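Work Package 4 report. The design task specified in the project plan requires that, given a folded chain encoded as C-alpha cells, an amino acid be chosen for each position. We show below one input record used in the internal validation round.
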C-alpha cells in the first residue's frame, strides 16, 4: 500500500464529524441521540492528509459462548475481568477511498496501540480484542489478514434491556490476543486486577507451587499475640510474596492483588474464612516479622528449587518501603541482595534509623554462599572494608561505582585502567 498512513484518536472537536460519517455510511449507523455505550475509543486513519477510515472500540459483549470456551473462565471470573476485553463495534472505510489492503493495515496499526490507549484513557489495559462479523454478508477478510483468530459462530441472540431474544442472524466471532497468552491470563488464577502488574509474570505464576512455599513459610516465627489472629502468618506472608512476584510494588498494590483472588485460590494459601485479608492486616504482619529469618528460609527454598547463586551477579541495593510510614515510626528502609538476571531478592536486612547501609552489608551477606559471584553496589557502598570483606571472606569479586567526590580513589582507578589488564579481585595475586 502506497501513501503516508497515520492512525490516531479523534479530538473532541472532531466527534461530530466522525459520528456523522458513521451514521451516513456505516451499515449499522449509530444511535441518533446518543453515542456508542461502554468504554469507547474512536480512531481516525489519515492517508496522505485526508480522512480514510474510522474505527471504534468499546466494552466487550456481555456473554459469548465461543469466547468463554476459548478463555475457559468461570462466571465469577467473567464478571470481574470482562473489562479487559474490547470489542471492535464499528469499522468504516470511507466510500471515496479505494486503496488495496487499507483495512488490514489500519487494523494492524490500531492493534499496536490499543492496549496502551485503554490504560491512558480508562486506567486499565485490555488483553483481548474481539469482533463479530455477519458471515452471511461479509467474509472478514481484513480481520483474517490482520491475524485475528476465528472462534466460531454465536447462537444469534440480541439483548434488549435485561432480556435476550433470537434474531436469526448468528455472527462469526474473531479475536486477537493483545498480549502473549491472553486467554491463559484472563482465565488463570493469578490476574493483575487494576492492570498495574506485568502480564508475563502473571502467566508464569499459573503453575507456581504455592503449597510448597507455604510449608516453608510456616517455619517463620509468629511475633503476634495469640489473641485476635484472624489469619495465619504463613498465609499473609505467602500472599505478600506472590503479589510481589506478580508485580505489586507497595502495600496498597499487594492489597489490591489479594482482593482479586478467588475463594479457591485463597484456600491454597491456607485461608478458610472465605474473605481476603485487607492491606492493613498484611502490612502489620510484615512490619513485625523477623525479615532476616524470613529471607534465609526463602533463599534456601529457592536454592533447593534449582536457583544457584554461585557465579552470578548479586546487586546490593537499599530501598525505602513505600507505604510503610505509619505516623509513629519512620518508613522501613531495607538493604537487599538481588540476583541480577532473575531479579530475585535472596536476602534483606532492615536498616535501623540510627545506623546506615554501610554497616549492614556484612550482616546481609554473612549467611549467603556467593563464592565466585560478582557483587555490585552504588557509590555509597564503595568502601575499602566492604571490598576486602567481599574478596577475602566471601571469595567473590566486586564491581563498585566510584564518583568524583572520592578523588584519590578515582585517580587510582584511572591509573589502573591504563594498564593492559585489570581485575578487581585479588584471587590471582596480581
Amino acid at each position: 500500500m502506497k501513501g503516508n498512513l497515520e492512525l490516531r484518536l479523534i479530538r473532541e472537536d472532531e466527534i461530530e464529524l466522525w459520528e456523522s460519517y458513521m451514521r451516513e455510511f456505516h451499515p449499522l449507523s449509530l444511535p441518533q441521540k446518543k453515542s456508542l455505550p461502554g468504554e469507547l475509543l474512536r480512531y481516525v486513519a489519515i492517508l496522505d492528509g485526508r480522512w480514510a477510515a474510522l474505527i471504534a472500540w468499546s466494552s466487550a459483549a456481555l456473554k459469548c459462548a465461543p469466547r468463554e470456551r476459548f478463555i475457559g473462565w468461570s462466571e465469577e471470573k467473567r464478571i470481574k475481568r470482562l473489562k479487559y476485553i474490547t470489542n471492535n463495534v464499528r469499522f468504516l472505510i470511507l466510500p471515496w477511498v479505494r486503496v488495496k489492503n487499507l483495512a488490514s493495515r489500519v487494523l494492524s496499526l490500531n492493534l499496536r496501540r490499543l492496549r496502551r490507549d485503554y490504560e491512558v484513557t480508562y486506567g486499565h489495559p485490555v488483553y483481548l480484542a474481539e469482533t463479530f462479523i455477519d458471515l452471511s454478508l461479509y467474509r472478514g477478510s481484513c480481520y483474517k489478514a490482520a491475524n485475528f483468530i476465528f472462534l466460531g459462530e454465536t447462537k444469534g441472540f440480541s439483548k434488549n434491556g435485561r432480556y435476550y431474544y433470537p434474531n436469526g442472524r448468528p455472527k462469526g466471532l474473531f479475536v486477537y490476543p493483545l498480549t502473549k497468552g491472553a486467554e491463559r491470563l484472563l482465565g488463570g488464577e493469578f490476574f493483575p486486577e487494576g492492570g498495574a502488574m506485568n502480564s508475563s509474570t502473571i502467566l508464569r505464576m499459573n503453575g507456581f507451587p504455592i503449597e510448597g512455599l507455604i510449608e516453608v513459610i510456616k517455619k517463620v516465627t509468629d511475633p503476634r499475640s495469640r489473641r485476635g489472629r484472624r489469619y495465619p502468618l504463613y498465609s499473609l506472608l505467602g500472599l505478600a510474596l506472590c503479589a510481589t512476584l506478580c508485580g505489586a510494588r507497595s502495600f496498597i498494590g499487594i492489597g489490591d492483588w489479594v482482593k482479586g483472588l478467588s475463594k479457591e485460590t485463597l484456600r491454597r494459601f491456607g485461608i478458610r474464612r472465605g474473605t481476603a485479608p485487607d492491606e492493613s492486616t498484611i502490612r502489620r504482619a510484615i512490619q513485625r516479622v523477623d525479615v532476616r529469618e524470613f529471607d534465609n528460609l526463602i533463599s534456601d527454598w529457592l536454592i533447593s528449587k534449582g536457583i544457584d547463586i554461585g557465579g552470578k551477579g548479586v546487586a546490593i541495593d537499599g530501598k525505602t518501603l513505600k507505604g510503610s510510614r505509619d505516623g509513629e515510626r519512620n518508613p522501613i528502609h531495607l538493604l537487599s541482595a538481588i540476583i541480577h538476571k532473575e531479579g530475585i531478592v535472596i536476602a534483606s536486612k532492615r536498616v535501623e534509623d540510627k545506623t546506615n547501609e554501610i554497616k549492614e552489608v556484612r550482616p546481609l551477606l554473612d549467611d549467603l554462599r556467593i563464592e565466585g559471584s560478582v557483587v555490585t553496589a552504588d557509590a555509597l557502598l564503595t568502601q575499602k572494608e566492604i571490598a576486602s570483606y567481599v574478596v577475602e571472606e566471601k571469595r567473590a569479586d566486586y564491581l563498585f561505582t566510584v564518583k568524583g567526590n572520592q578523588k584519590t580513589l578515582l585517580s587510582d582507578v584511572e591509573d589502573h585502567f591504563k594498564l593492559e589488564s585489570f581485575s578487581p579481585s585479588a584471587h590471582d595475586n596480581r
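The CA atoms of residues 42 and 56 lie 5 Å apart. Validation will be extended to a larger panel in the next phase.
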